[in-house]
Automatic annotation (TrEMBL):
<dbReference type="InterPro" id="IPR007527">
    <property type="entry name" value="Znf_SWIM"/>
</dbReference>
<dbReference type="GO" id="GO:0008270">
    <property type="term" value="F:zinc ion binding"/>
</dbReference>
<keyword id="KW-0862">Zinc</keyword>
<dbReference type="Pfam" id="PF21055">
    <property type="entry name" value="ZSWIM4-8_C"/>
</dbReference>
<protein>
    <submittedName>
        <fullName>Zinc finger SWIM-type containing 6</fullName>
    </submittedName>
</protein>
<keyword id="KW-0479">Metal-binding</keyword>
<dbReference type="InterPro" id="IPR048370">
    <property type="entry name" value="ZSWIM4-8_C"/>
</dbReference>
<dbReference type="GO" id="GO:0031462">
    <property type="term" value="C:Cul2-RING ubiquitin ligase complex"/>
</dbReference>
<keyword id="KW-0863">Zinc-finger</keyword>
<feature type="region of interest" description="Disordered">
    <location>
        <begin position="125"/>
        <end position="157"/>
    </location>
</feature>
<feature type="compositionally biased region" description="Low complexity">
    <location>
        <begin position="125"/>
        <end position="146"/>
    </location>
</feature>
<feature type="domain" description="SWIM-type">
    <location>
        <begin position="225"/>
        <end position="262"/>
    </location>
</feature>
Length: 1194
């Protein structure tokens, strides 16, 4: 991290020489040695120094470390240099040199922690080569990466000469072979500058400066960067670099100089603080020093030098009122805070930038990496962890979207919500730091309460206030455990951290648990519920489980993995003991509870999906203790998936802990506690986000369990927990009777089923079948038991549930059922049991249909013969879907019906016959005729079933019977299909035709009758077609302006059919046409068609009739002509009532067509003239229109 200016930071304290007196000559320290006396106490030999730094391989002869170095190292770690100066009047120069020498950071891991987003989970010496390849925000890595590639080829010699090793201090393991500086393929761009060529490096007191040169590349010249680093008590307190980079982390040049100093300390020239050097000069030397300094840097220094000279020469200047002068190399003062340099402004800017991107461009990933960096700092016990989290939280609270979402009443995005969850969890870890000072905790509490009081502070469960009691302070030490929950404000993401500030670590029992592996009490026989030891004498820890697990997380986060492991084991042993006690308690009351048919929730807060993730914490703590590849027991990061590190982990049963049963290990304990948490009966929380979190955390925990390969030992754990879950009543989500709003167990049961199936199929099926229920959808679910508050916390019964994740839950229920169906293939008894469970518990037709399809696919796999039992299950499920969706709307209904017929075809002819016999309970009449019967009688079905003639006829008879029944029930929609299906059977066809005739006068529309009539004509029944056409005409009514009505073609067809049959038929239908059709253009069209040919010209048998054309002066055409002329007259008056000028030309054309019709009558000319004159008289006000009429018609 480079600062904007290139000048070093100002000195932190004023330095003077307290031992300097009038009796001392210039250049000599009172009671001390001269400049050359350093040889009197030169410190350790080079071999000893190398041994101290871990530079020599193990096993070689080494000189013992000197007492001076041992003392100087300890002083350099703990004391600011000002305290050393004040404590001792005389400090020999060699002692000062060794203190300065040991004051520089010794751990590469700490340098690397401030160099990139790397989580620090790797071994410190391996960090440069194994860091994440993602670039840090701000451009540091981006600028360093291409130059590092250039250095790969040009700087090989530099890389070879820079070979060194990490210091074996700060908790970092020593290495037998010194690793080199990052080589050509090192992926960490922030550390690649260590390959660059060095021009100079100098250590002046507590100030390290150097020049880093990056070789030139094709597009850029050689880059020279001046780096300055101040340090104090093994921490870097400030950095500057001329590269000008702005970033959260140190720039590559600062990192390179720091690593060089750690790995090659003897090649960095060491000087005492500059004030000490100046003290050793006489007047002439001082004047020469100042003049040379001004000459070399005259453009930068001369104005400042002149100003200082003027102030020093002025007797009353402020500078002369102060004793001593500042020295930037003199080390820290007593009042200085000892912490690593952190650019707070850059942290704030980067977080603000990430939040402004709204989740795009990987900003969510970057924020997660920042949280991971906070956890890394906490694990290193770096005070900047809390400092950095404070800066992040301030930017989160200042996010303008919070107030916008609150005003609009909309929820924040899911990913953003998860960031807030992690923020709250980190604050929980910080306030539970077992070694934080009271003033620190008070400061954090004040800040948390300030954030908590802001209106836009997000609530813990997303959109709803959590009305649960204050369970964080469940330990007696909590002062707020009994407050009235009805008057409490909404719980925010900071509420738990605020409550955790009341917790402490002073409980003697807790201290013994976390501090010793030998804490037992074999004489302790108190068998009460809250006893401190179990029957083995092993310690137990009774506390609100999420709170106890938050302690474990805090210990892990602050770098106390062994203490965290001890407490985790005590918690798990407590849970197992409670589990056994609960089982015994339920067995004693089982008969009474089952008789009442009621149950209750034993935990208002579920452990899976809880904001503090207690089960996940215990699982991770125990799993990291049994990782094969973890020598230093640092644990794996919670954000590994966000960094793209997909390293596969291996686990093994490590030697048993003192407080584990024989044959148990950390691995078995981790698996068992995960099963306990997943199987817990708990209430479904309110709010969309809280419910989604329950599902998400459950799936995450199961995915971690799936990474573990089961062996005999773990199978025993699975058996044990499965049996408990089945028998534990209200304490288990798989108990015999559970509460209506209990979180379903489908996802967990599917995992249990697949895990147990190869080892104990009976138990696997029993567990999965018990989990199939979904009581929230059942109307007769058990209510809450309000009569036993002493051991069961009941929820409010009969509350209408708002399960926002119900569709996901139902899909998981479907997946569980599908898994059982697949596994039960070939087992008739199992399949029947699973089918019964599906029919009883699954309430979604779409999911049952999916199961039916799945079973069908499994039963008809290409590589094996069809499984007839599974096919029958598939058919039975399909039939249930038909019954469920018969009276409801479902957009997939036609697909379901077609699939059912296909499935029945696979089962056999008897299945097809069965569904046709009971069609009225499965299908609508339309579906039965248009899909079922039609498919059954198709050639493809006959070929597929290999039917003989007798079987074909029997199946066709069932189809015809179905068709006739459907036609009777719904003639409007089924009559045509029935006629089609019955064509080959004369009696059935006549019956269907009669059904149509009977329905024609009552329920059928003209369009349906016309359709059937056309079908009859097409099949060679013109007289029957004519009969139906006349019936259709009685239902038709065309007004004067419906000249585009879809029935016009049917009317023309009916008249043409009548005309072709003969004069009598035409004479019979024309009165119907005149009565039904009032549209003049349609009537005129019919009239012209009837005058073109002789009626009956083409007889029924193709014989031509030699009759004359029909006369317009005689019936029936005279009646049609008069009706047409009357229709034109009426239509004309109707149109003139509301005509507009833009329709005048269209109206004139209409009158021209009318004249053609008028002229068909023998006196038509006279009638039309009278009609026009009448129009002129009536509508004489429409002058323009009448003028057009006169122009056209006279």
């Amino acid at each position: 991290m480079a600062e904007r200016g290139q000048l070093p930071p100002p000195a932190k304290r004023l330095c003077c020489r307290p031992g300097y007196g009038s009796g001392c000559r210039p250049g000599q320290r009172a009671g001390g040695a001269g400049p050359g006396s350093g040889a009197l106490c030169a410190g350790p030999s080079s071999a000893a120094a190398a041994a101290a730094l871990g530079l020599l391989p193990l096993g070689k002869t080494q000189s013992p470390e000197s007492l001076l170095d041992i003392a100087a190292r300890k002083v350099a770690e703990k004391w600011p240099f000002q305290r050393v100066e004040e404590r001792f009047e005389r400090i020999p120069e060699p002692v000062q040199r060794r203190i300065v020498y040991w004051s520089f950071p010794r751990s590469e891991r700490e340098i690397c922690m401030y160099s990139s987003f790397n989580t620090g989970a790797e071994d410190p010496a391996a960090v440069p080569g194994g860091a994440a390849s993602g670039t840090a925000p701000g451009g540091a890595a981006d600028s360093a990466a291409p130059r590092a590639r250039r250095a790969d080829s040009a700087g090989g010699a530099a890389a070879a000469s820079a070979t060194a090793t990490a210091a074996a201090v700060g908790g970092c393991p020593a290495r037998r072979t010194p690793p080199p500086l990052p080589g050509p393929r090192a992926p960490c761009p922030l550390l690649r500058a260590a390959l660059a060529l060095w021009r100079s490096r100098r250590l002046s007191g507590f100030h390290l400066s150097g020049t880093v040169t990056e070789p030139a590349m094709q597009s850029e010249p050689e880059t020279v960067c001046n780096v300055a680093i101040s340090f104090d008590r093994c921490k870097i307190t400030s950095v500057t670099c001329s590269c000008g980079n702005k970033d959260i982390f140190y720039c590559a040049h600062v990192v390179a100089l720091s690593l060089y100093r750690i790995r090659k300390p003897d090649q960095v020239k060491l000087h005492l603080p500059i004030s000490e050097t100046l003290f050793q000069m006489n007047r002439d030397q001082l004047q020469k020093f100042v003049q040379y300094l001004i000459t070399v840097h005259h453009t930068e220094v001369l104005p400042t030098a002149q100003k200082l000279a003027d102030e020093i020469l002025s007797q009353n200047s402020e500078i002369n009122q102060v004793h001593g002068a500042p020295d930037p190399t003199a080390g820290a003062s007593i009042d200085d805070e000892n912490c690593w340099h952190l650019d707070e402004e850059q942290v704030q800017e980067q977080v603000k930038l990430f939040l402004s991107q709204g989740g795009y461009h990987g900003s969510g990933k970057q924020l997660n990496l920042l949280f991971a960096k906070v956890r890394e700092m906490l694990k290193m016990r770096d005070s900047n962890g809390a400092r950095m989290l404070t800066l992040i939280t301030e930017q989160f609270m200042a996010d303008p979207r919070l107030s916008l979402w609150r005003q609009q009443g909309t929820a924040m995005t899911d990913k953003y919500r998860q960031l807030w969850d992690e923020l709250g969890a980190l604050w929980m870890c910080i306030v539970l730091n077992p070694h934080c000072k009271l003033e620190q905790k008070a400061s954090w509490l004040k800040q948390l309460k300030k954030w908590n009081s802001v209106d836009v502070c997000p609530w813990e469960d997303g959109n709803h206030g959590n009305e649960l009691p204050n369970l964080t302070n469940a330990l007696p030490q909590g002062a707020n455990a009994n407050q009235d929950s009805s008057n409490r404000p909404h719980r925010t993401v900071f509420t738990r951290a605020i409550e955790a500030c009341d917790l402490h670590w002073q409980d003697s029992h807790l201290q013994h648990i976390i501090s010793s592996d030998l804490y037992t009490n074999y004489c302790y026989h108190d068998d009460t519920e809250n006893s401190l030891f179990d029957s083995h004498g092993w310690p137990l820890w009774h506390e609100h489980v999420p709170t106890a697990c938050a302690r474990v997380d805090a210990l892990r986060s602050h770098g106390y993995p062994r203490e965290a492991l001890r407490l985790a084991i005590a918690i798990v042993n407590t849970l197992r003991r409670q589990q056994q006690k609960q089982l015994e308690m339920f067995r004693a009351q089982k008969k009474e509870l089952l008789h009442k048919g009621v149950t209750s929730i034993t935990n208002l807060e579920g452990w899976v999906g809880h904001p503090l993730d207690p089960i996940g914490t215990l699982f991770s703590s125990l799993m990291e203790a049994c990782r094969v590849d973890d020598e230093s027991f640092h644990g794996f990061s919670d954000f590994t998936e966000n960094m793209g590190q997909c390293k596969s982990l291996e686990y093994q049963h490590l030697p048993a802990h003192k407080f584990l049963e024989e044959g148990e290990s950390y691995l078995t304990l981790a698996v068992e506690v995960a099963l306990i948490g997943l199987g817990q009966q708990r209430i479904m929380p309110d709010g969309l986000y809280a419910q989604e979190k329950v599902c998400r955390n459950e799936e995450q925990l199961i995915s971690k369990l799936q990474e573990i390969e089961l062996d005999d030992t773990l199978v025993k754990i699975f058996r044990k927990q499965a049996v408990f879950l089945l028998e534990a009543g209200p304490y288990s989500g798989l108990g015999e009777v559970i509460h209506r709003e209990s979180v379903p167990m489908h996802t967990f049961a599917k995992y249990l089923f697949t895990s147990l199936l190869p080892h104990d199929a009976e138990l696997a099926y029993k567990t999965a079948l018990r989990a199939m229920r979904l009581l929230v959808l059942e109307s007769t679910a058990p209510s809450g038991d309000m009569s036993r508050p002493h051991h069961i916390a009941s929820v409010v019964p009969n509350r209408y549930p708002r399960w926002f994740t119900l569709s996901h839950i139902e899909s998981q229920q479907c997946e569980l059922a599908s898994t059982m169906l697949t596994a039960a293939k070939g087992d008739v008894r199992r399949l029947e049991t699973v089918l019964e469970s599906i029919q009883k518990n699954i309430h979604s037709s779409s999911h049952i249909f999916k199961l039916a399809q799945d079973a069908f696919k499994i039963a008809t796999l290409m590589d094996s013969l069809p499984d007839i039992t599974l096919l029958k299950v598939s058919l039975e499920l399909g039939l249930q879907v038909m019954r469920m969706t018969l009276s409801t709307l479902n957009w997939r209904r036609r697909e379901m019906v077609r699939w059912l017929v296909t499935c029945a075809t696979e089962v056999g002819v008897y299945a097809l016959d069965s569904i046709m016999q009971s069609w009225f309970t499965l299908f609508t009449p339309t579906e039965a005729t248009s899909i079922v019967a039609t498919t059954v009688m198709s050639n493809s079905t006959i070929v597929r079933l290999h039917l003989d003639c007798h079987q074909q006829e029997k199946l066709a008879g069932s189809a015809r019977t179905l068709a006739l029944q459907c036609a009777m029930k719904d003639p409007q929609n089924c009559a045509l299909s029935a006629l089609t299906l019955c064509e080959k059977d004369h009696i059935a066809f006549e019956t269907a035709y009669q059904i149509v005739l009977d329905a024609a006068t009552t329920g059928m529309s003209y369009s349906q009758l016309f359709t059937i009539a056309r079908y009859m004509e097409h099949r060679g029944y013109p007289m029957r077609a004519y009969k139906l056409a006349t019936l259709a005409m009685t239902h038709l009514n065309l007004s004067y302006n419906q000249d585009t009505h879809p029935a016009i073609n049917d009317v023309l067809w009916a008249c043409a059919l009548s005309h072709s049959l003969g004069k009598n038929e035409l004479a019979a239908i024309i009165p119907l046409v005149v009565k039904s059709v009032k549209c003049a253009t349609v009537l005129s069209d019919i009239l012209r068609r009837c005058t073109l040919t002789t009626p009956g010209m083409v007889g029924l048998h193709g014989r031509r009739n030699s009759g004359k054309l029909m006369s317009l002066d005689k019936a029936p055409l005279r009646q049609l002509l008069d009706a047409t002329i009357g229709a034109y007259i009426n239509t004309t008056h109707s149109r003139l009532t509301h005509i507009s000028p833009r329709h005048y030309s269209e109206f004139i054309e209409f009158l021209s067509k009318a004249r053609e019709t008028f002229l068909m009558a023998h006196d038509g000319h006279i009638q039309f003239t009278q009609f026009i004159d009448n129009l002129k008289q009536i509508y004489k006000g429409k002058k323009k229109l009448m003028m057009l009429v006169r122009e056209r018609f006279g």
